[in-house]
Design brief:
By secondary structure, the protein is α/β, with parallel strands linked by helices. The chain contains 13 helices and 16 strands. The chain is elongated and about 75 Å long. It binds pyridoxal-5'-phosphate. The site of pyridoxal-5'-phosphate has 13 residues, from strand 9 and helix 10.
């Protein structure tokens, strides 16, 4: 009976625990709201999967943010009513759709802002912008403070349909720069200078992403910061715990589980036989000879998760040893349970497999 059902179920599955995601988002929203900070829930890490985004809305995010316009169009169409924010600098080629469907975007280029203005006028619409300042991470944003302030004044005084919502920064993405009281303090100082120049308060001072959460937990976030764009820290909550050594035990980290089916179980040598050349991806991996060991082959591959080393086997005694486009290979020699073909093995994951699996059309999404 049970086996019948299992055979009908399609694998691989990405199992998403919506209740746990809701609780993670609620916990983060409550923490941040306590400091006067509103959350833009960043949904690009799950390809904007609707049921997940729905939890972001229910748990109190004030904006939905993504780097992809198509995800936001789909979400609006599906009934998500929160303001949408594009968190990648817009391409010229997407400005029509941006203005039509997305409420605001992060910006750093005069020509792009001018094109948004023209498009807004043509469509009879308004669009909000957050100007990005680069505090040293060296991805997007103005580096020169005067140029930045001039741009803010230009948007405020010259552009009619583009509204200056505020200023923001991004850290920890390219230059791996840590958000601190000092660098975010600088953003706040600049924001204050802009406010003096335009003679009003800015609505948004956006102090970064998940990597800014430690400052909030430590009570060191500059008071003026009132907006964060959070994805990983609510979806998985693994990075702060593992990389930053911050206790995130109050958060659920088992929100996403890959379930894959075993298609072969055999004893094999651990060192390849023949002349080692290159694998299917042009790499020459190294192999350690551990003699003959029992391994299982699973029907899921790099095409689905890209990085097998970011998957976390859930059964004791199982170790991932490699993958190719369509297969995952695990060492099961040390596993006390018998593993047979047809069995399903579970893997938790870090951010990269969540990103890829959620977008893979060959992976079933199951919500619990
Ligand atoms: C991806 C992204 C975020 C969210 O990052 P997380 O680490 O998932 O919280 C925030 N801001 C920008 C500009 C981004 O590109």
């Amino acid at each position: 009976m049970c086996q019948c059902i299992e055979q009908k179920q399609k694998y691989p599955i990405l199992q998403v625990n919506l209740k746990k995601i809701y609780e993670n988002v609620k916990c983060t929203v409550d923490l941040c709201n306590g400091k006067g900070i509103r959350i833009a829930g960043v949904v690009k890490g799950v390809n904007g999967l609707f049921p997940v985004v729905d939890q972001f809305v229910k748990a109190g995010c004030k904006y939905i943010a993504s780097s992809r316009v198509d995800q936001m169009i789909r979400l609006k169409g599906a009934g998500i009513n929160l303001p949408m924010m594009l968190i990648r600098i817009p391409m010229f080629s997407e400005i029509d759709e941006l203005v039509k469907h997305v409420d605001s975007s992060l910006n750093s280029e005069l020509e792009t802002l001018n094109q948004i203005e023209q498009t807004c006028k043509a469509q009879g619409k308004k669009h909000g912008v957050v100007l990005m300042f680069d505090l040293g991470d060296l991805r997007e944003g103005f580096v020169d403070e005067d140029e930045f302030m001039d741009m803010a004044v230009y948007v405020e005084n010259t552009l009619e349909n583009v509204d200056l919502l505020g200023v923001g920064t991004n850290l920890g993405c390219y230059g791996s720069i840590k958000p601190t009281e000092e660098n975010l303090g600088k953003l706040c100082d600049i924001a204050e200078k802009i406010e003096e120049k335009i003679n009003r308060k800015l609505e948004i001072i956006s102090g970064g992403a998940t990597s800014t959460l430690p400052l909030i937990i430590d009570g060191k976030i500059p008071e003026k910061v009132n907006h964060l764009r959070i994805g990983e820290g609510m979806l998985l909550a693994k990075d702060l715990d593992d990389l930053w050594k911050i206790d995130m035990s109050h958060m659920h980290q088992d929100t996403f589980v890959l379930k894959a089916q075993v298609v072969e179980v055999k004893d094999k040598p651990t060192y390849p036989i023949g002349e080692i050349f290159i694998d299917a991806f042009g790499k020459t991996p190294t192999y350690e000879d551990k003699g003959i060991r029992k391994r299982a082959l699973l029907a899921v591959g790099k095409q689905d998760f890209v990085m097998h080393d970011k998957l976390i086997p859930q059964k004791e005694g199982i170790e991932i040893i490699g993958s190719s486009s369509d297969h995952l290979i695990v060492d099961i020699h040390g596993c006390n349970e018998e593993i047979k073909i047809g069995d399903i093995l579970d893997f938790e994951m870090y951010y990269p497999p969540m990103l890829y699996l959620s977008g893979s059309p060959s992976v079933e999404k199951v919500y619990i």
